[in-house]
Amino acid sequence: MLSFLIEYQKYFMLFLQGACIFTAFLILITRSLCAKRKIAIFFLEVSAVFYLGAPVFYLTYDGVPGNVIRIALIVSKSIDYLAPLFMLFSFNMYLRDLISHKSENYRQNSVLLISSEIVLLLGVVLFIVSRFTGWYFFYDELNFYHRAKGRIYATIIPAVCMILQILVISFNYKNISKKVRVPLVLFLVMPIISSVLSFVTPGFHLSNISTVFMAIVLYIFVVMDSNDAIESAHKREVEILENHKKELEIKVAERTKELLIANEKAEHLLLNILPESIAKELTENPDKTISQKYPNATILFTDIVGFTKMSSQMSAEQTVLMLNELVSLFDMRAQKEGIEKIKTIGDAYMAATGLSVQENSDEALKMIHFAKGLLEDVNQFNKKSSVQIKIRIGINTGNLVAGVIGKTKFIYDVWGDTVNVASRMESTGEPMRIHVSESTWLLTKDFIQYDNPVMVEVKGKGNMNCYFVKDE
Questions:
Q1: Quick check: helix, strand or coil at residue 328?
Q2: How far is CA 471 from its chain centroid?
Q3: Which element (helix H / strand E) includes 344?
Q4: Using an 8 Å Cβ cutoff, are 279 and 378 in contact?
Q5: For residues 419-458, b (16+ Cβ closer than 10 Å) or e, as one string?
Q6: How far apart are CA 368 and CA 469, in angstroms?
């Protein structure tokens, strides 16, 4: 069996040499390896090619006479001694990059790796010296190879380097990927084992074959590990992106919620200033002039009797508190009964109904009921307040124009004779009574009891018949 292996080992080494050349080519086109590792593994495979090519040559031409053959044999044998040192140096380069990415004990690792490089450098120096002294090997006149007494150092130096590299791997074993742990160890252990076995297999270059074979296996597992690392990094990147996406979705949801709340507040604030239909139109068309003519609107004015004298006897805070409490009562009633508050001017309160293009006589009646409610609110206010107040109420029905004026601090307002007459009804009215125009009276006389008509002079209108709602 051994004789068969020795006879055909050249062919097996040629096959492995071809495999190494192909592997080196694959390394050049591999994209999954980083630059440093690619260079390290590439030089490892190239060194392996020479490590196998040398014994093939000197096995073929050992003992063949000729000066040229002699030089070629010396060169091939020199490569046989130097190639393992270059392979270990390349392996050292790979370990350095691998450990620097995965280990916290970088200083300890650096000491071991630098020590192994120094040992390798020493091996190269000793070999160069041996070429001048014949300390490692020599060829006789017939071109036969002979070992010298210093040959043992050519074995010891790579062994010391491999031991240092094994220590580096052992110290960082847990930090190294499972894919490459075993191949890394085997790459260093197999040559040592094969060197021991070579004593019982003389003539068979087991060390060369096993070392090169493990170099090829190492490349396969290094690429697999690199692909796994890329896939893992891609998964982490996808996971990070997914988490970032979820965070963005949460933030968008929160901002959307905040925006909806802010929008609701803005709409609520706008509805406190404008009628709903006007607020909607203004929101949809902010640059449009908002105006509308209403044919059958009813306007109410009310103010506090003797407010100027009353407020002069009160502090500013007391005045504002009193007005706020009273107007708040009016606002709540207006909201409850579907009356549109227009505005307050000082102590005056203005409201409207019938702000619709459709004629509806019920709007005037609704305003009369609202006015009666205001009187009730005043009576309730007086029961709780130390300040006793009275109000006048004037109501008129007719056509008017309503719209929004201004760009900043805009206001919804109404204009026309209907508004002027309603104001006149209030100013000519009596405390705690409801004073209406003839147009309002005509729309509500079948439902509301009135006193006899009173002639009132209205500026720009002349004398008009006006009516007071009978006290209940």
A1: helix
A2: 70
A3: strand 340-345
A4: no
A5: bbbbbbbbebbeebbbbbbbbbbebbeeebebeeeeebeb
A6: 9
How many Cβ atoms are within 10 Å of 267's Cβ, its own excluded?
Answer: 14
The residues, ordered by sequence, that sit 6+ positions from 375 with a Cβ below 8 Å of its Cβ are 391, 393, 432, 434
Give the separation between CA 419 and CA 413, rounded to whole angstroms: 10
Nearest to 278 by CA among 387, 404, 371: 404
Instruction: State the CB neighbour count (10 A cutoff) for residue 55.
Output: 22
Q: What's this model's pTM, rounded to 2 decimal places?
A: 0.53
Per-residue tens of pLDDT for the chain, all 472 residues:
557 666 677 787 888 888 888 888 888 888 888 888 889 989 988 998 888 888 888 778 878 888 888 888 889 889 889 999 999 999 999 888 888 765 567 778 888 999 999 999 999 999 999 988 888 888 888 888 888 888 888 889 999 999 998 998 888 888 888 888 888 888 888 888 877 776 666 666 777 777 888 888 888 888 888 887 778 878 888 888 889 989 999 999 988 888 888 877 777 766 666 666 666 666 666 666 677 888 889 999 999 999 988 888 889 999 999 999 999 999 999 999 989 999 999 899 999 998 875 656 689 999 999 999 999 999 999 999 888 999 999 999 999 998 887 767 677 789 999 999 999 999 999 999 999 999 999 999 999 999 999 998 887 788 899 999 998 7
* Residue 79: both structure tokens together: 């490569």
Q: Give the C-alpha separation, 390 to 295, whole Å.
A: 32
- Residue 392, SS3 per DSSP: strand
CA distances from 238 to 31, 32, 398 (A): 21, 18, 70
